[in-house]
Amino acid sequence: MGRGNYIPPVSRYSNADYETIYIDNELVYGKDHWENCSEDDYYFYYQDFKEDLISEFERRFPTFSKNDREWLDNTTKIVAENSLCMLTLCDEDNYIAVSVISKEDDYNAGLVNLANRHLQNYAKFLKEFALETYGEYRVRTSAWTSAIIKKEVA
Hints:
Elements: E1 18-24, H1 25-29, H2 33-36, H3 39-60, E2 65-71, E3 77-81, E4 85-91, E5 95-102, H4 111-134, E6 136-140, E7 146-150
Antiparallel strand pairs: 1-5, 2-3, 3-4, 4-5, 6-7
């Protein structure tokens, strides 16, 4: 049996909401990456992808700042965050999962509602970034399937 679609580890954020898109490895690493990329190439392309994503988020949403030292679990890295949401990456087998996850504050129950409200704006920008940069992305449609969203050609 194969692997299902990635879902971010939000269990510690019980009321937290999230949006995830999948960007195929071929779009980030190149068409024949499994034949032509060395480990150094993979690292370079991944870092380039990550830095472009973070800088665009910081440009559009100045409250976001880079966070390159914290992990949600053993595969999901927080790459940027603000007081309401975090931007995470998970390099899966065939794609990179990019998620925006709302934070929850144990001392302020209303904060998660505010975070979930802003989450939609962050997710919209994430999808626009993917379309402008790569021309397409995928979204989860069920546990095992996803749909491709492509940039409309005028």
